[in-house]
């Protein structure tokens, strides 16, 4: 895993990473949030457990995404970690038992207040429906990454 940007003021970071499966990728990203102080020690395990019960893979087009998150009790500060995978990893699809999708981009959320969750998810889904934006993120276009992350955290 390699950190490509971190903005403490705006509460986001972005990493490139690789893994053989969803658990490896999720653990690496949760650790990145933990290293930055955004989440508690319980966060990585909580993310994995929640993903098992409530999968977050979204097949939104050529580039699929996942939006892993967990309960506020595991969070110190609200933040978003963008993960760009060097090769896709299979995730279970949100709300579709038995369906999978190969995910290339993850937006891991550490949400401090439950009432903020739906608003953030709606903003993220808008971003994720734009394949051109996702392609720019995959290409690690730093201007686009900072623009998207700033829009997400500032509303």
TrEMBL record:
Query: What is the protein's name according to its record?
Result: PTS sugar transporter subunit IIA
Q: Which InterPro entries match?
A: PTrfase/Anion_transptr, PTS_EIIA_type-2_dom, PTS_SugarTrans_NitroReg
The organism of origin for this protein? Eubacterium album
Tagged with keyword Transport: yes
Q: Say yes or no: keyword Hydrolase present.
A: no
Q: Which UniProt keywords apply?
A: Sugar transport, Transport
Q: Which residues form the PTS EIIA type-2 domain?
A: 6-155
Per the record, a Pfam family?
PTS_EIIA_2
